[in-house]
Amino acid sequence: MMFDKVPDIHAAPRLWGGLTAVFCISIFLVFIALGQPQRGIVSMFAFGVVFLTFALFWECRSKWWFWSLATIISLIHLIFIFSFDWSFEKRPGLFFALIGAVDAAIIFFILSVAVKFFDRR
What we know:
By secondary structure, the chain is mainly alpha-helical. It is built from 4 helices and no strands. The longest helix has 26 residues, at 93-118. The radius of gyration is 15 Å and the shape is globular.
């Protein structure tokens, strides 16, 4: 089995954190240009969670299922970002932090199950 140890963020490329920050800030700036800064903040943190969670499983990047799951999870995030009203006046900041933590846990669980399922052969 390929994944006998706990996922390690240090297995990701060294620039991973910087690239994640640049990508997330770019997303935020696009939403500011569109006049939706609150949606930009939510999308910035959502894709930050997606990127950093996938960084934990970077050892699996040569597998077809890794990129399939990355695409599917990113598309699901896009749907959620555009489907809901993310105004901060209606919800406290702790609500968004809780959603981010649950989101990271769900992605981590999905990737852990995929590793066990696809690498058992």
